[in-house]
Each structure stands twice: as C-alpha cells, then as structure tokens.
Amino acid sequence: MNPELFNIFGISIKWYSVLILLGIILGFFLADKESKKFNLPKDFIFDLGFWAIIFGIFGARLYYVIFNFNIYKNDFWEIFRVWNGGLAIHGGIIAGLITVLVYCKIKDVKAIRMTDIIVPSLILAQAIGRWGNFFNGEAHGPATTITNLQNLHIPDFIINGMNINGIYYHPTFLYESLWCLLGFLILILIRKFYKYLKTGQLTCVYLMWYSVGRLFIESLRTDSLMLGQFKVAQLVSLIMFIVGFVCFIYLCFNRLKKGQYYEKKILKEKIK
C-alpha cells in the first residue's frame, strides 16, 4: 500500500496522520456530546481534550522510541517524524490518563467520571487509527497464504495490501480495529441501557475489553516491542486487565448510590 494520501507543493500528507486526526475529531465530538448531559462547559472538555491529545501523542511516541531506541540512536531527528509511523497506544493511554488526572485535579472535577465519558471515544479512535498501520505496511502478523486470508472472508483490497514483497501476512491491524469497534458498541450500549451503571465501571470495561483483545492479537504480531523475552504490550495488557477487573468487582459491591454514573449533580457541583 502507498502510505501517502496526496502531495501538496512537495509536502507529503500521509494516511497515518490523517486517520489519527480523523479518530481524534470523532472522539472529541462524542465526548463533547456526552459531557453536555452533565452540563459541563464546552471549554472544559475542549481544553482537556487538547492537552490529553498533545501529551497522549507525546507519550505514545516516547514509549515507542524507548523500546526501539536502537532504531533512533543514530538518527535523532527521526524521533520527531511521527508521520512515518511509530506510536504505541499504551504509551498514549498512560500519558493521556495522567493528563486527565492532573487536569481534573486542577479543575476540581471527579477524574474517574471523566474517564467514563472519554473511553468510548478513545476506543473508537483506536479502531480508526489502526488503519494507518495498514497503509504503512506495519503491525501485521505472521506470513500466511492468500487462501487462508480468503477463507477468513477478508476483503480483497486488504488481502492485496497484505501482500508485502510477495509474501502475504495476517492483517492483525484489522483484527484489532474490529475488536475496538465492537468494544465501542458495547460501551455505548452499556452506557445507554444499563441504569445501574456506577461511576468508574465503564472505564473498567474498557480496560478489560481492550486488554483481552490486545493480549491475544499481540501474540500474532511480528513487530512487537520487547522487554527481554516478553512482549511489552502483553505485559501492559495483563496489568490493565487485572486493574480493570479488580476495580469493577469492587464497584459492584459498592452499595453507595451516590456513585451512580448518571447522578449528574455530582459533576455539576464540581465545576467552578
């Protein structure tokens, strides 16, 4: 596949950058729409989104560079060429979460309520952003045959794109994108129809859902970030799942009604 979408006056516009931007825009739109239900000022969610995106991209790049330092140690400026690929979603999640915690602390807003609002947008952005890997010819699985890919009912244009230098590969980017898209639908349905939803539970579901999918999909990846003999993404996914599971169970047995997700007055009173 051609990673370049188009070229303007010698400036190359990459699919990777455009798809990440698209995911961010849609994610912001959804988060803004949900925040209105809690009477959050528009500038609050905009400012939070701005800083979370900036530090999220920085964290995603830093995470990737740290575990791929051999690639960049001889070409320092390549570190800043983000459009060439090389963002690790776990780094973005960690940096974004820290940004949300700090910003909400400054504004005296309940941070876990904000993560509940944000996670559906986040996982949708992940589903869209994964297609940037497709156009870059990266984040694929092991070699396979065209017959195996056709038996999985994968569209022809994806199969053709997975033909890299004459060898067909498993489109793990597609598996993760579909897993994230399904996760997005599940989060939206839970938020809309589960009236006993408690603050923090939606975040827990996100942590568990994404981690389970990434744990298994990562086992197929051939370009994983490594820490000794272990794949970093699997280690982080395992930790994220445990945290999400333990917190979800705790919240299930928390009988305090004031912890309900739809109890809007808690968040209203926090906004200065």
Biggest sheet, open or closed, and with what strands and sense?
Answer: 3 strands, antiparallel
Sheet/helix structural class: mainly alpha
Arrangement of strands in the largest sheet: 3-5-4
- The number of E-state strands comes to 7
Poorly predicted regions are: 268-272
Task: Give the overall pLDDT as a whole number.
Answer: 89
Radius of gyration: 20 Å
Count every helix, treating DSSP H or I runs of 4 or more residues as helices.
11
The percent range for strand residues is 5-15%
The SSE order reads EEHHHHHEHHEEHHEEHH
**Helical proportion?**
55-70%
Which of globular, elongated, flat, extended, rod-shaped describes the shape?
globular
- Kindly, what is the distance between the CA atoms of the first and last residues, rounded to a whole number of angstroms? 50 Å
Structural description of this entry:
- With about 270 residues, the protein is mainly alpha-helical.
- The protein is about 65% helix and about 5% strand.
- The chain has 11 helices and 7 strands.
- The chain has helices spanning about 15-35, 40-65, 70, 90-105, 110-135, 145-150, 155-160, 170-195, 200-220, 230-250, 265-270; strands at about 5-10, 10-15, 145, 165, 165-170, 225, 230.
- A 3-stranded antiparallel β-sheet has the order 3-5-4. Strands 1-2 form a two-stranded antiparallel ribbon.
- Strand 1 (about 5-10) and strand 2 form a beta hairpin.
- The radius of gyration is 20 Å and the shape is globular.
- The termini are far apart.
- The relative contact order is 0.12.
